[in-house]
Amino acid sequence: MSVLQSWPVQREFDPKNMPFRRLGGSGLRVPLFSLGGWLTLGGTVVGDPVKEIIKTAFENGINMFDTAEAYAAGKSEEEMGRVIQELGLRRTDLVITTKLFWGLRKGPNDGGLSRKHIVEGTQESLARLGLTYVDVIFAHRHDHNVPVEEIVRAFNYVIEKGWALYWGTSEWSAREIEEAHHVANKLNLIAPIAEQCKHNMFDRERPEKEYHGLYKKYGLGTTTFSSLASGLLTGKYNDGIPEDSRFSNHSEFFKDTIEGLKSPAGQEKIRKVKELTTLAEQELQTTISALALAWVAKNPNTSTVILGASRPEQIVENLKALEVLPKLTPEIMEKIEKILGSAPEALPSYGRPMLDRFGRI
Ligand SMILES: NC(=O)c1ccc[n+]([C@@H]2O[C@H](COP(=O)([O-])OP(=O)(O)OC[C@H]3O[C@@H](n4cnc5c(N)ncnc54)[C@H](OP(=O)(O)O)[C@@H]3O)[C@@H](O)[C@H]2O)c1
Fold first, then answer.
1. Which residues pair with 23 in a beta bridge?
2. Start and end of every NADP-dependent oxidoreductase domain (predicted)?
3. CB-based burial of residue 262 (10 Å sphere; 0-12 exposed, 13-18 middle, 19+ buried)?
4. Beta bridge pairs of residue 148
5. 277, CA 20 to 30 Å: which among 83, 113, 135, 306?
């Protein structure tokens, strides 16, 4: 079989009005909004509904799909691969990303970032996806029990084998990302091109402060996740936990988050969600969901915002963020900042000219 895997193409990709950005300093172009499968695809959503969700995304300009070996214990990769094949999507039209770390079994070498798991885990992911390569493979977490040189060399091996075209990190600290770059630089190897990080109106520290110096220096791209804070920024949790929502379907996993919503800090978040809803509806004629997603996409260091959806309608609603983007004027951004009051404190400049929080002079 050709490396590009030719199954009959039934659907041509039409990017519609989707903007594309480079993934960091790489030449890979990614849609401003992509789609991921955590908890949903292969988890709470299986069978034909997965096809409906991916089809709706693809028909609305989303050609990038993110998964991980651990999502639904491998089922997410299986379902995504099955649907891509059944829909007859052209492999070259797609950007497929997966992640390794958590593993599927409990053996001492079944997870983490040893060369053994990176090589074996990649092969197992590809088998589940039914693909010969993924576009980007991410280290789902850092592994402090493996020398960084081993990690960098193993991802380079995976790339040389043609099993992945690029590699990236997820939830690594700035120091860990820098170390990977230094090792790659010293050994003349390929460095990670992007960090998959949490970024939403309530979680800002890493992408807006900690990584601040990395964007320009290393051409770091970001694929942001949980940009709706798992649904909190849709307003659906303002008055409790609705049935058939993420927090009710995964109440054990989100136990602390659910409890936290009752605390003064949690109530304060809900108050802000309500204020942002008013701003979205009255000043931008949109929903808070679209506003919250556009706000992350507005950040010039965001390469792609990975959406999560349990039903196709959520994708259509969330892509209204594209219409909101041009409405995010400096005045509106200031009003949002006033409501949030959560901008990370800038690094001290001691009177010297400072880069802004996007790493620009
Ligand atoms: N690297 C990592 O460690 C990591 C971690 C987390 C996620 N990710 C990736 O990022 C992707 C997105 O993250 P996420 O799923 O946490 O994103 P999110 O946008 O914060 O949450 C998505 C969930 O919110 C609800 N939702 C979405 N749109 C809605 C709308 N318009 N109205 C009402 N509810 C809505 C849906 O859940 P319900 O309908 O079930 O309530 C949906 O599954 C994941 O799929 C995964 O690929 C990566």
1. none
2. 35-339
3. exposed
4. none
5. 306
Pick the closest to residue 223 from 173, 178, 187, 169 (CA basis): 169
Comparing C-alpha atoms, which of 301, 304, 320 is closest to residue 19? 304
pLDDT digits (tens, 9 = 90+) for 140-154: 999 999 999 999 999
Phi, psi (degrees; rounded to nearest 5) at 11: -130, 125
Burial 27-58 (b: 16+ CB within 10 A, else e): ebbbbbbbbbbbbbbbbebeeebbbbbbbbbb
The verdict on the CB of residue 318 being under 6 Å from ligand 1 is yes
Structure tokens at 78: 């299986």
Q: Which of 71, 133, 166, 237 is catalytic?
A: 71
C-beta of residue 209 within 8 angstroms of C-beta of residue 357? yes
pTM for the structure as a whole = 0.96
How distant is the alpha carbon of residue 191 from its chain centre?
19
Tell me the pLDDT band of 69, cut-offs 50, 70 and 90. very high
Quote the ligand 1 centre to 314 CA distance (angstroms).
Answer: 10
229 lines ligand 1 (CB under 6 A): yes
Q: Is the pLDDT of residue 8 over 90?
A: no
Q: Which atom of ligand 1 approaches the CA of 226 most closely?
A: 20
CB of 36 shorter than 6 A to ligand 1: yes
179 CA from centroid of ligand 1 (Å):
30
The domains found in the chain, sorted by start residue, are: 20-340 (3.20.20.100)
> Does the Cβ of 306 fall within 6 Å of ligand 1?
yes
pLDDT of 347 above 80: no
Distance between CA atoms of residues 323 and 286, nearest Å: 9
Active-site residue, 71 included? yes
Which runs of consecutive H residues, i.e. helices, occur in the chain? 48-59, 75-87, 115-129, 148-160, 174-186, 205, 214-218, 246-249, 255-260, 264-284, 288-298, 312-318, 321-324, 330-340
pLDDT of 171 over the 60 cut: yes
Q: Taking 70 as the threshold, does the pLDDT of residue 357 lie above it?
A: no
